Description:
This protein is α/β, with parallel strands linked by helices. The chain contains 7 helices and 16 strands. The strands form 4 sheets. Strands 1, 2, 3, 4, 5, 6 and 16 form a 7-stranded mixed sheet that branches. A hairpin with a 4-residue loop joins strand 4 and strand 5. Helix 1 (14-25) crosses helix 7 (284-301) and helix 5 packs parallel to helix 6. It is elongated, with a radius of gyration of 22 Å. The protein starts with a strand and ends in an 11-residue tail after the last helix. 39% of the residues are buried. The protein binds flavin-adenine dinucleotide (FAD). Flavin-adenine dinucleotide (FAD) binds at residues 10-16, 34-37, 42-44, 46-47, 51, 53, 84-86, 111-113, 154-155, 158, 241, 244, 274-275, 282-285, 287.
Amino acid sequence: MSSLYNSIIIGGGPAGVSCALELINEHETNFLLLEKGASLGGKLHIISCSVRDLGGVYFDSGQEYLNSLQLCIDKFKVPYRTGAIVQKVDLLRKIVFVAGEKLEARTMVIAAGVRTQKLMPTGQNELCEQIIYYVEGREKEIWGKRVVVVGGGDSAVIEAINAAKNGSVVTVVSRSPLRARPDLVQSILASKNIEVLQDYEVVAVLGTSTISAIEVLNRSTGDKTVLPTEIVVAKIGSVPNSELFTGQIALDQEGYVIVDQHMQTSVTAVYAAGDIIDARYLRIGTAIGGGVAIAHEILRSLGLQKKTCTQS
Ligand SMILES: Cc1cc2nc3c(=O)[nH]c(=O)nc-3n(C[C@H](O)[C@H](O)[C@H](O)COP(=O)(O)OP(=O)(O)OC[C@H]3O[C@@H](n4cnc5c(N)ncnc54)[C@H](O)[C@@H]3O)c2cc1C
């Protein structure tokens, strides 16, 4: 294989993987998928609830969907590296640096997703560091306790429901009305163990060596209240992983990558898909669709589009 790839894909979540699978499906193999994690899948690793918004297919969890994706990745021999942190890029020249190695390509795909937004209350650093952002693997610290979950989206509501089902007494603190999926909101409102404070925000984390309470501000009245709690879980949104590309391509005010109708960024032959372009949807379906579309844009731009029937 040439050391000059036809394409390098940065990020092995649903967007990057779907782009890779579509390239393989179209018999294009001179590309490389780079994932900084120990395995492919991105956020699929942390979806503990069912995945049911993929246009008619259903999985009990993100991991179950990932197992299915991994079967395709192995069967069709998708070329990828894990543990490959892209540390530096030159998008104009289509160069990436991974662990000191320089890799070059004709086209590039940015599929690096988003990360969790951190809560910024006042309080000792030691206490702020105890705020839990990723629950996966820490359930036993949370279940059966008095818990505050901060946020009003899907992730916050799912964590609140899981904790309440497992014996926690939960207060959800949301700056705005809950904006999670309607079925999740219904479950939370029906739960006896969950109180919901909407139009409130967390202003301080209190305690000595461990968290014992938070202070919340009622955004309508300006009143402050102290809520005793042992655990604070924060699920307050996302920040795009676009720092690597800052100054090289057009980003919006929040740092999301701007693409045109062909998924191309402001730099020719550099494409982007998935959550990193998608503050509005943040969905697997849009990530997959974007990845597939990019694969065809790449083939077209390189003059590689084949007219073969891909049914087998
Ligand atoms: C709790 C939870 C529940 C969800 N439930 C649903 C649901 O039911 N249905 C739904 O449609 N969506 C759901 N989502 C959203 C869905 O997971 C995302 O929309 C989807 O994973 C986005 O895919 P992506 O490929 O854009 O990004 P990601 O999945 O975030 O993947 C990006 C990948 O890029 C890698 N990366 C980042 N920077 C670098 C770098 N410098 N070098 C190399 N690799 C890098 C990351 O390690 C990561 O693996 C949920 C999300 C969460 C958190």
